Every structure is written in structure tokens, then in C-alpha cells.
């Protein structure tokens, strides 16, 4: 939601901005002989070299400029303040003067990571170039600070130029020593955890598997997934900082366990590679109605779309089959149930999918939670279904302000949903199939944003599925994120990826199988899922949704993720031959498109 004014934390900066506008120097620290200019490319004459701008909102322009031929222009959106940052090396216990020239409404300049009090200054309205200045003193162990400039949510574009940081330069870093004491733990058939003591001066670590770099992490531990059962792996770690990379640690060897063939959560009864599709069971559209008995045998999981609530907050879910007036060829209830049994006899799973685009579900109370459990149970029992698919979209899930730990959520709609799912799992036992189909905004977007954010102003739905997935991780059969109808999402390479090709599916799936720090917090990491718990969600055709890719692009994504071949610009953090498969919206649209999606799946996996 767009904001029309600054947050409370910036109100104290009014005095600073007023002084700067009046040309006063009360905030400007005196220069010393050892002081130097530390901001790189502060005049933006070399484009954005040295600067990183959020969500692709920053660029350089030739007019207006304060000096030279270029300046920075940032264009905020309703969900992004167009922040551009630069990290510089500083000296502990030293004073620095930060300044810059800006134009526009609600433009901010500041520094974070100072080790003392982070600073910012701002102007509410600068029709022409206005100088902003502030000072800070670094903490006793601070060697880096991050400079930033940004606008405000939903306001017009701002311009910044001649950003300057004056103060003593920090000592050049030296290459850190090689890590020691590397150990393994939590070894399974397809994963193992790796940890090591921190190395002085290191800012990140590279992990090598059998001599090949697998990933770079900020912390001192990681979990390797997608490994082969009963296989020995040689593991090494190196330490990195701005000066370079250390030598590798002494190799340690770990052997994965024998595969059990039944990882739990209902997934053990699925084929090694499964095809999942949604069947329009309660409505008709341009794709036409498809009878359950007419769904080809290639489809391993069939999600009945949709069960919807009687009201947003009632928790009372109803499944109404498509009426004859809308679906002239709809089968009778008896035939529908018989077809479900026939599919199950052939080893297929049939689930009720709750939500969809129009079915907003908010379990705001424990009463709604209990009604959800009883009403969903009634649908499962009536039709003899294998389980439940959660397809909450729109505003069904969002996080309350202050709910920042995905491992310990406090928001009622989140807590009550988790409780309801655990109750259903306990009721139906190990064979209960639980799947989820969130949009990228609710999952991978959590790498960059989580809830309303530390300072507020963000969309509270950002990453809102993460606590549900995490809480149900041991009972979750499949997660098939909708890699469609999505905006650009930042991957683990810190680059934005957009729909339309294999790269998007590779980057989004790699995040699920590698894990990622939530909202950039290295101490709050969403752990990876097993590859057998993950399928890639794609539209079946151009009619089905935005983000359709041709079979050749689908196959490139599968090649890269399962074989590490045919990869594009994105480098994955592993290879996962046990990746479960593909999900599509929908069976009906694939039939409309002459079964292109199904045929390609069968050809690729030898179906």
C-alpha cells in the first residue's frame, strides 16, 4: 500500500534537513589530514557502478544533474522505496561526514551498520537541488558501513547526485585463514548438515563438494540437499572477504544413508517423478469441463478446484460440483465418486484444493479453525479423497506487524492454519497427502522482504507462507509454487528473475532446495526442502496464465536442476535428480491445448 508520509523514525531528521537547507554546518564534521573521499562513483558518472538499487528501481539520467553529466534517478513503487546502497570500508572508532544533493519529495540519505547509531537525513520536498548532510561515528569493531539513498513508497521519482563520504579510510583487508574443524551432522539419504567455527576477518564461506564449489554462505553452517543415497562425499570449506579466498580446509568425508523409499508426508506412495494437475471440478470456463474418468493416466495427483468458504472468515469450506447449467457434460455424483476410486486403484491421488483466486480464507479465530477442520474433513470423507491442497491466494495470509520470526509465528491466521493442518494430519495418519500451491510473492519473495518489515510500509503478505511451510515440513508431501502470474523475484544470486524462460524456474526452485535467509537475515534461514517434496508449477498453455514456457524451456529447467546441464545464467547450488516433478494449471487447459504439457512430461521422464 502506498504511503503518503515518512515513518516516525525519520521525524527527528527534520531539524537536520532544515539546518542543511539553511546552509548551516552544525552537522558537518571537521576534516582531518588523513580524511579522504570514500564513496565510489558518488557522481554516478560511471552509471550505477558501485551501487545496488532495489527491485530494479534505480538508473542514471543525464538531466537533471547537480554536476557532471549523470545523476541517479530512483522510482519508488507502492511496495518499494527505490533504495540504492553502497558498502564502504571504514576505520573503527572514527567520525565521518556524509553528504549528497537530492531533488524530489521525501528523499533520504543515510548510513547503516555504523556500530553505534545509524543515521539518516531527509527532505520532504526539494523542487531544486538540496544538500543533505549528516555525521556518524563508527563502533570499536566496525570496518564497513552501508550508505543509502531512497524515496518513499508510492511517491514520484527522486534524483540524487554527488554523494560523498569523508573520513579516514579503513585498513585494507587481508585474505582470511583456512577454516578448521569442519564437521558433518544430520546425515540422511539425500542431505547432510555441515558446520565450522568462524574465521577471523571472513565475510562469507565457500563450500566445496568433491572439489567443486557448491555454494557460498554468509554463516558458518549449511545443509546440502539433493545428494545420492549411500554415497561418500568429500567436503571442504574456504573463507572469503574483499581481499580474496583462503585455501580450502582439510577434506572431511561423509556418507549418506541408504534410501528408505518412504520419506513420509504421503510422498512415499507417489512415483519418483509425478505430474500434478488441477481439475476444474466446481466451475467451467473457456477450457471446458473434463470428467474425472477422462483424465489420462499420466496425471499422478489430481487437485479438485476448488473448495471455497461460505465467507472469508467463517472457516466453513464447501465443495460444490459444477452444475449442469454451467457444465452440460458433468457426470453424476455417483459416477464422480466411482471415477475417484478408479483413479486411486490405479495409484493416483485425488485431493480437494482449498482457495484459489476467488476463495479467500482467513482463519482469524479458533472457532473458524475448528470449523475449517470439520468442514474439510466432511469433504474428504464424502468423496473418499486422499488429502488436501492449500491454494490460499490474495489476502488469505498476511503477517501482523511485529511478527518477524517465521519459525515462531504469532499472527492468528497463520497460527490457526498450522493448527488446523496438524489436526487433519493427525486425524488421517501417514497416508494423508498434503500439498501447497503458493504464489512466489508468499514464498521466494521472503528472501528480500518478510511481512511489513522492520520499519513498516511493506506489504504484510510478503513471505507469509514461510511459517506454514516450515511448521508442516515433516508432513508436507509436495510444495509446488506457482511460477506464473508473478512479478520479478530476486534469486540467491541477488539478481531479479522474470517469467518467460527456464531461468525463472531454475532460480525459484533452487531457492526452495537450497534454503535462504529470510529478509536477508543470515541468522534467520529458511531451511531447504527435500527434492522429493518439490515440484515446479507452470501454466499448461498461454490461455492458462502469464508465464507460459514452451516444452523446450521446461526441459532446460529440468535438465539444469536434475542433471546440471543446459543451465543458463543462473548457477544452481546443487543437483537434485530426486526432484519430484511438475504441477500445472490445469488439466482442463492442457486438454484444450492438445495435452502438450502432459505429453512433454511423459516424454521427458519416460512415462
Describe this protein's structure.
- The protein has 607 residues and is of the alpha+beta class.
- Helices cover 17% and strands 29% of the residues.
- Strand 23, helix 5 and strand 24 form a beta-alpha-beta unit.
- The chain is globular and about 85 Å long.
- The N terminus is likely disordered.
Q: What can be said about this structure in brief?
A:
The chain has about 600 residues and is α+β, with helices and mostly antiparallel strands. The chain has 9 helices and 30 strands.
Report strand %. Answer: 25-35%
The first-to-last residue Cα distance is 47 Å
Report the C-alpha radius of gyration, rounded: 27 Å
Helix percentage range: 10-25%
Shape designation? globular
Biggest sheet descriptor? 9 strands, antiparallel
Number of helices: 9
Q: How would you classify the quaternary structure?
A: single chain
Output the structural class.
Answer: alpha+beta
Mean pLDDT across all residues, rounded?
Answer: 89
List unreliable stretches of 5+ residues. Answer: 1-33, 260-264
Amino acid at each position: 500500500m502506498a504511503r503518503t508520509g515518512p515513518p516516525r523514525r525519520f521525524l527527528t531528521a527534520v531539524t537536520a534537513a532544515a539546518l542543511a537547507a539553511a546552509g548551516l554546518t552544525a552537522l558537518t564534521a571537521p576534516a582531518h589530514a588523513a580524511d579522504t573521499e570514500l564513496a565510489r562513483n558518488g557522481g554516478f558518472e560511471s552509471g550505477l557502478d558501485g551501487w545496488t538499487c532495489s527491485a530494479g528501481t534505480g538508473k542514471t539520467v543525464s538531466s537533471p544533474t547537480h554536476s557532471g553529466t549523470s545523476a541517479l534517478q530512483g522510482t519508488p513503487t507502492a511496495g518499494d522505496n527505490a533504495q540504492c546502497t553502497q558498502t564502504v570500508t571504514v576505520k573503527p572508532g572514527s567520525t565521518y561526514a556524509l553528504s549528497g544533493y537530492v531533488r524530489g519529495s521525501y528523499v533520504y540519505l543515510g548510513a547503516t551498520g555504523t556500530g553505534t547509531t545509524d543515521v539518516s537525513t531527509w527532505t520532504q520536498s526539494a523542487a531544486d537541488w538540496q544538500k543533505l548532510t549528516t555525521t556518524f561515528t563508527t563502533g570499536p569493531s566496525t570496518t564497513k558501513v552501508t550508505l543509502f539513498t531512497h524515496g518513499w513508497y508510492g511517491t514520484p521519482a527522486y534524483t540524487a547526485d554527488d554523494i560523498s563520504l569523508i573520513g579516514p579510510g579503513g585498513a585494507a583487508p587481508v585474505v582470511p585463514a583456512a577454516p578448521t574443524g569442519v564437521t558433518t551432522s544430520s546425515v540422511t539419504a539425500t542431505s547432510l548438515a555441515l558446520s565450522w567455527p568462524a574465521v577471523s576477518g571472513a565475510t562469507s564461506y565457500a563450500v566445496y563438494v568433491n572439489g567443486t564449489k557448491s555454494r557460498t554462505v554468509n554463516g558458518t553452517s549449511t545443509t546440502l540437499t539433493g545428494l545420492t543415497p549411500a554415497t561418500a562425499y568429500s567436503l571442504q570449506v574456504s573463507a572469503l572477504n574483499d581481499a580474496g579466498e583462503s585455501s580450502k580446509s582439510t577434506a572431511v568425508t561423509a556418507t549418506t544413508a541408504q534410501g528408505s523409499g518412504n520419506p513420509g508426508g504421503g510422498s512415499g506412495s507417489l512415483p519418483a517423478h509425478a505430474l500434478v494437475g488441477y481439475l476444474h471440478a466446481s466451475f467451467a470456463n473457456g477450457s471446458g469441463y473434463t470428467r474425472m474418468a477422462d483424465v489420462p493416466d499420466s496425471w499422478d495427483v489430481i487437485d479438485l478446484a476448488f473448495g471455497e468458504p461460505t465467507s472469508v472468515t467463517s472457516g466453513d469450506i464447501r465443495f460444490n460440483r459444477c452444475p449442469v447449467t454451467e457444465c452440460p457434460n458433468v457426470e453424476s455424483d455417483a459416477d464422480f465418486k466411482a471415477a475417484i476410486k478408479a483413479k486411486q486403484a490405479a495409484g493416483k491421488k485425488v485431493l480437494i484444493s482449498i482457495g484459489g483466486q476467488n476463495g479467500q480464507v482467513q482463519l482469524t479465530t479458533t472457532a473458524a479453525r475448528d470449523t475449517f477442520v470439520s468442514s474439510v474433513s466432511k469433504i474428504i470423507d464424502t468423496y473418499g479423497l486422499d488429502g488436501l491442497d492449500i491454494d490460499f491466494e490474495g489476502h488469505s495470509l498476511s503477517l501482523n506487524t511485529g511478527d518477524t520470526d517465521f519459525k515462531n509465528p504469532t499472527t492468528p491466521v497463520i497460527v490457526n492454519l498450522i493448527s488446523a493442518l496438524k489436526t487433519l494430519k493427525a486425524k488421517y495418519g501417514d497416508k494423508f497427502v498434503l500439498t501447497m500451491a503458493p504464489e512466489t510473492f508468499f514464498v521466494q519473495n521472503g528472501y528480500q522482504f518478510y511481512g511489513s518489515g522492520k520499519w513498516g510500509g511493506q506489504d504484510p503478505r510478503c513471505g507469509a507462507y514461510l511459517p506454514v511451510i516450515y511448521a508442516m515440513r515433516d508432513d508436507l508431501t509436495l510444495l509446488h509454487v506457482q511460477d506464473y502470474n508473478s512479478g520479478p523475484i530476486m534469486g540467491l544470486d541477488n539478481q531479479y528473475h522474470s517469467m518467460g524462460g527456464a531461468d525463472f524456474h531454475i532460480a525459484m526452485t533452487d531457492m526452495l532446495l537450497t534454503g535462504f535467509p529470510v529478509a536477508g537475515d543470515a541468522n534467520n534461514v529458511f531451511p531447504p526442502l527435500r527434492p522429493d517434496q518439490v515440484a515446479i508449477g507452470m501454466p499448461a498453455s498461454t490461455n492458462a496464465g502469464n508465464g507460459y514456457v514452451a516444452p523446450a524451456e521446461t526441459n532446460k529447467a529440468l535438465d539444469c536442476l536434475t542433471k546440471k546441464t543446459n543451465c543458463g545464467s543462473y548457477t544452481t547450488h546443487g543437483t537434485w535428480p530426486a526432484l519430484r516433478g511438475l504441477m500445472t494449471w490445469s488439466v482442463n487447459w492442457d486438454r484444450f491445448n492438445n495435452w502438450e504439457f502432459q505429453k512433454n512430461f511423459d516424454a521427458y521422464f519416460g512415462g
